[in-house]
Amino acid sequence: MNASGEIDDGSKALAELLSFQSLLSLESLAQRAQALTLRRFGRTISLYVPLYLSNFCSSGCAYCGFAADRKTPRKRLTFEETQNELSALKQMGFDEVLLLTGERTPQADCDYLASCVKLAAKVFHRVTIEAFPMSVEEYKALVQAGCTGVTLYQETYDRAQYDQLHRWGPKKDYDARLEAPERALEAGMRTVGLGVLLGLSDPVAEALALFRHVRQLERKFWRAGFSLSFPRIRPQAGGFQPLFEVDDRLLARLIFAFRICLPDVELVLSTRERASFRDGMAGLGITKMSIASRTTVGGYQAGAAMEGSGQFEVSDERSVEEFCRALRSRRYEPVFKNWDAVYREVEAQKVEVCPCD
After folding, report:
1. What is the pLDDT of residue 308?
2. Could you state, in order of their start, the residue ranges of all structural domains in the chain?
3. Of the candidates 2, 43, 338, 51, the residue with the CA atom closest to the CA atom of residue 190
């Protein structure tokens, strides 16, 4: 608490680190971020893989290749196809999978997602989702199915920009999305992933809003785990172009500043970014990455990739073997498993016996 009686959430320190008038060079920030990352996480990078279950969508996000008005071919994986995809990912060495859908539709609703989570929980020790906002009761059903975490990006914290970019559909409800991570944690989820889509609004203002959001959740759900992602806009169906430039130096500064101000939070960098940038950021704040990603529905099982464009174009297209070889050449160890199913089962039992209404 500061002298005026207000709770000091650390956002002023973050703002100073992000200021272009700061006397701290990018190199000095990198050194501080690297030291903190090494101390808290060691020389390890946790790995996960995304699996798109469906690209049906009911919303009109201007920046997304899955928006309802795109001419992208639509598909939903059957349960048999989902099982085949999960088996293919397991054979590639993964033990953490992120299941994704578009906004809520009859083709891909909570019941469908819960069924897919159950299938995944039989194969993987850790199953998380990135989908539409849900109620506490719906999140409880996913916990009982074997889900341990939710990733949900606000996309932009600028309300006016949010309203303009989300042209129609359920995603246009700013507050319903903003409050969803809290509902997920109330339902018993162990982890929540937050982020903004860099390029939609002023990146420094977005970073400060993201920081305040995670700090607010940390105060209330202090036992939960949090991760933050820093995706930049990539080419996609619809041809949306970034409204604000976020170059490599600014993105690096954002990552270093967040590591310094949030030393225990997992920072994630996806295959949106090119291989050389990801290699350089490993251990300099970043502690978790996706690899061998496909942004189309299916695509991991041989011959299963659907025709047409994905949600966005992947930049780092290396195989699992290539990526791990690059990490080890920098003396970092790829970690495929840092979670055990026994913890998931304990949490599901807690939700069933002691629901948090």
Report:
1. 55
2. 43-349
3. 338
Q: How far is it, in rounded angstroms, from Cα 131 to Cα 42?
A: 31
Q: In which residue are the tokens 């949600």 written?
A: 311
For 295-305, the pLDDT digits (tens) are: 889 888 754 55
Nearest alpha carbon to residue 166 among 270, 182, 175: 175
Distance CA 264, CA 290 (A): 19
Task: Count Cβ neighbours within 10 Å for each residue of 320-338 and write b for 16 or more, e otherwise.
Answer: beebbebbeeeebebbbee
Question: Hey, which residues does 333 pair with through a beta bridge?
Answer: 44
Q: How far is residue 37 from each of residues 184, 211, 230, 278, 281, measured CA to CA in Å?
A: 27, 18, 17, 15, 11
Both tokens of 321, joined, read 């073997």
Task: Give the DSSP H or E segment for 241.
Answer: none
Name the strand (E) or helix (H) holding 165: helix 159-165
Fold of 43-349: TIM Barrel (3.20.20)
Query: What pTM does this model have?
Result: 0.91
